[in-house]
């Protein structure tokens, strides 16, 4: 408690203080508020790389006769941005999957000790989106055979295949990325998908939310399985 508050409590015997002001006075920004609002509104309509920084906004106001400081402009711009963000941040679309609808595939490279030697293994991760059942398989090298064998063993575990399979844009599955969601798959990869049958869907690079369930699985499995205790070897 500050000395000012303690002094007010002793003198008035009050235990609760509230600010009764309805409007916050802005002695410097007040006369320039309409012009600053227009600049901020125009700034939001520009591309991110074309937007003016608070420093540039302050310089534009000062060139027109503004006598206040930079901090007042910066705080006002931050408050305006915070008032506009909730309407955007509250809108989202939750992902839900029906039983047997979607499976997600991802991969990782792990460094593990085997027989006294530190080696790098290629790990394939599969996750059923509805039941969250996971399947993990590690191999010495990353090849198309690893992808095919992982699908065969993963679908044999629940004794069934999903209708869609979301995978990363790995070279063993995707040859060329086209604008949008169009992909040119490897010649043998669609043959493997038609055998189960599964409709392949390649996610967008760097968009982890499109296969968020298996992305979370990769972190958990790598931490609990492929990070052995000191002196322990992977078998």
Would you give an account of this structure?
There is one protein chain. The protein has helices spanning 3-12, 33-44, 54-63, 70-89, 144-156, 188-195, 212-224, and strands at residues 102-114, 117-128, 134-139, 164-167, 174-177, 183-185, 199-202. By secondary structure, it is of the alpha/beta class. It folds into two domains: 3-89, no CATH class; 102-224, Ribonuclease H-like superfamily/Ribonuclease H (Nucleotidyltransferase, domain 5), CATH 3.30.420.10. The protein has a five-stranded mixed β-sheet, with helices on both faces. The chain has a two-stranded antiparallel ribbon with strand order 5-6. Helix 3 crosses helix 4. The chain starts with a helix and ends in an 11-residue tail after the last helix. The relative contact order is 0.10. The mean pLDDT is 78.
């Amino acid at each position: 408690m500050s000395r000012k508050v303690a002094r007010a409590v002793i003198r008035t015997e009050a235990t609760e203080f509230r600010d009764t002001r309805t409007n916050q006075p802005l002695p410097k920004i007040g006369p320039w508020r309409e012009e600053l609002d227009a600049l901020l509104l125009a700034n939001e309509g520009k591309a991110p790389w074309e937007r003016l920084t608070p420093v540039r906004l302050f310089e534009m106001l000062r060139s027109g006769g503004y006598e206040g400081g930079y901090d007042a402009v910066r705080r006002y711009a931050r408050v305006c941005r915070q008032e506009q963000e909730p309407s955007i941040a509250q809108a989202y679309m939750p992902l839900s999957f029906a039983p047997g609808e979607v499976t997600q595939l991802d991969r990782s490279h792990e460094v593990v000790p085997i027989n006294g030697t530190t080696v790098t293994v290629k790990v394939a991760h599969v996750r059923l989106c509805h039941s969250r059942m996971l399947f993990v398989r590690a191999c010495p090298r990353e090849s198309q055979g690893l992808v095919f064998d992982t699908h065969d063993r993963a679908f044999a575990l629940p004794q069934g295949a999903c209708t869609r399979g979301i995978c990363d844009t790995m070279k063993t599955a995707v040859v060329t990325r086209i604008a949008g969601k169009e992909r040119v798959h490897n010649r043998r990869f669609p043959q493997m998908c038609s055998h189960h049958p599964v409709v392949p869907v390649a996610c967008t690079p760097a968009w982890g939310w499109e296969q968020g369930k298996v992305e979370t699985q990769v972190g958990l499995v790598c931490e609990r399985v492929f990070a052995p205790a000191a002196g322990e070897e992977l078998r």
